[in-house]
């Protein structure tokens, strides 16, 4: 072996070493850059979530069942769902899902389009297929059939925020019954 051959072998190995080392550090740099990008994306997602929560509408509510006997002795029953926006942002396109009563009837409430922070609205609900029962004795039977004057309920309220993100909140409690003569 002469010096030229040894020199070529050394140049070849040193080139291979330099290329291998370069590849190793490029891979290491790429992995670090990828991890930084993932961290930045997680932080951005968390900031977006915090921003949405900081202006998220939230609701306090009450539900009343109103019963009114007409001059004809017909008992009319309807519901009032009062909602108050106690959250940090405006609620848009508010609509409650139907309330299912113990006897299987459903109450459909009207929708509401816009509720600012601190504002209240009363949504009237009507029983699907309207239930009318004549006479005060029938009203008492209605109360017994429904299990008394206070009934637990769950109503899912669906709404959007000002950025059109869609949310829902489940309203739970016991309805109050008000009899009007």
Q: Taking all residues together, what is the mean pLDDT? A: 81
Determine the strand fraction and express it as a percent band.
35-45%
**Helical content band:** 25-40%
- The shape is rod-shaped
Structural class: alpha+beta
Ends: how far apart? 119 Å
Rg result: 34 Å
| Number of contiguous helices | 2
> Quick one: biggest sheet?
7 strands, mixed
Return the string of H and E elements: HEEEEEEEEHEEE
Uncertain runs are 132-148
Sequence-ordered SSE layout with sheet pairings:
Layout: H1 3-54, E1 59-69, E2 74-85, E3 91-96, E4 99-100, E5 106-109, E6 112-115, E7 120-127, E8 132-134, H2 136-146, E9 152-160, E10 166-174, E11 176-180
Parallel strand pairs: 1-11
Antiparallel strand pairs: 1-2, 2-7, 2-8, 3-6, 3-9, 4-5, 5-7, 9-10
Describe the structure.
The protein is α+β, with helices and mostly antiparallel strands and 181 residues long. 35% of the residues lie in helices and 40% in strands. The chain is rod-shaped.
In short:
The chain is built from two helices and eleven strands.
Key phrases:
alpha+beta, 181 residues, rod-shaped, 2 helices, single chain, four-stranded antiparallel beta sheet, seven-stranded mixed beta sheet
